[in-house]
Structures are given as C-alpha cells and as structure tokens.
Amino acid sequence: MILKAIVSLSKNLLLTFIALVFSFSSSLAQNKYLPSPAFRDGEKITYTVFYNVIGIYVNAGTAVFQTNLERYNNTDVYHVVAEGRTNKKYDWIFKVRDRYESYFDTEKFRSLRFVRNIHEGDFKHHEEIVFQPKKNLVITNDNVYHVPGSIMDVINAVFYARNIDYNAYRPGAKISFNIFLDGQVYNSYVRYLGKERVTTKYGTYQAIKLKPLLIEGSVFKDGENMTLWVTDDARHVPVRAESPISVGSIKIDMADYQITN
What we know:
Elements: H1 2-10, H2 13-21, E1 43-52, E2 57-72, E3 75-86, E4 97-105, E5 111-120, E6 123-132, E7 137-139, E8 144-146, H3 154-161, E9 174-181, E10 184-200, E11 203-212, E12 227-231, E13 238-244, E14 249-259
Antiparallel strand pairs: 1-2, 1-14, 2-3, 3-4, 4-5, 5-6, 6-7, 7-8, 9-10, 10-11, 11-12, 12-13, 13-14
C-alpha cells in the first residue's frame, strides 16, 4: 500500500509540489501588489516533500527553485528553474527527475517561455511553450491557443503570487487567478485567511495563511482542501503546504533559503 502510494506521488512530484505551493496564476487586473519584487537574482529555495499514509510522514523527495536574472529575446527576464526528484532510496520503485523552466519579464512579470522536461521511470517528455502576451497567444508543441490577457505558466504564477500585498485584504477575501496548463485555461483563486505562527521541521515563522482553490486531477480533489503558509515579510517565501491527496496526505516544508549570487 505504501509503495503504491509513493509511486503515485512520484509520478507527479514536481507538478504536485507546484500545485501545493501555488496552483494558480493571476488575472492581474484587480489585485494589489508589493512595491518591489519579493524575490531576487540568485535566490535558491529547497523544499522537502513528506508523504503520510499510515500516520507516519516519510521523506519522499525534494524540490528546488533557483532564480536568476538573464536576457531573453532582448528582454530582461527572470529565469526560474524548478527541479523535483524522488529520494534515491525510492528510485528503485519509481525514479523521478523532473525539470521545469520559466522565463518572465522583469517589468510586468509576463510569461514568455515555459519548458518542461519530464523523466519518470522509463517515460521521458519534452515540452516548450512560447507566450506572446501582446497578441494573447500561447504556442505549444502542437497547437496555438488564444488566451486571456496576462495568462501565466505555473512557475511564473508561484513567483507572481508572492508579490501580492495581502495586507490590503481582509481575512476571507478571494483573490482571482488564471493559469495555462496542459492546453487549458483554468480560473481559480486563493482565499486569504489571516496571519499566524507556523512551526515546521526546520523552523518557526510568522506567516500568512492561504487556501488556494485546487484544480482537480489524478492527485488532488478540487476545492479548498490545501492550506499554505508564506512568510509575513517582504519575501513571502512559502514555508509550508499541507493537503490530503487521493491516498494519504502531503506536507511540504522549506528546508533551506539562500542567495547564491
């Protein structure tokens, strides 16, 4: 039972993590934001993914987000690389080495390019998506989509949402979002629940508490089933996420934060 559940989690380790951290992207127009970016060049955040099926949390894998300032198509961009992997002790069950990349401009945080390289067991998949925000187009490997303005990829969404000024909202407020994923546009929101202290395996933080509306899939049920905590400071770093899944539950804790440049 435990091995089967770990395999189910491993097949979508990084995307599962992204969904737990922020499974949404912003519709932008009515949201309120911090005066400067919450993240910076050289930021590296490492997370531990814990899985629980019989009352015991198992260290199932890691996820790492690395951010750098670069140039892309003559534009200053943030290039974020997110990598997820199962722990080596579980590789014999199902080995995962996934890598996602997002390029978004530094001025308006608009998605420009998204790359997904999946290596899960014997399955490999490469996907590249080009965003044309001025034309409201998204170009994938095999199709062209007309999308709403300011649509984002899932990695870009993680970082854009960190810039929301939650002090401008009252507890219970919904903040609306749109996201482009697997050829579809999803409408979602995050509910702001207020502030509290949260203690994780790696530390105690004064935090902002959120409830994202999840997109239903093979791992999650839709609805406000996940709880997320981000630091109540200028960086808004996600430090813990918890959610039930199809079998058991998941807890993800920030293990390390550093500026590498």
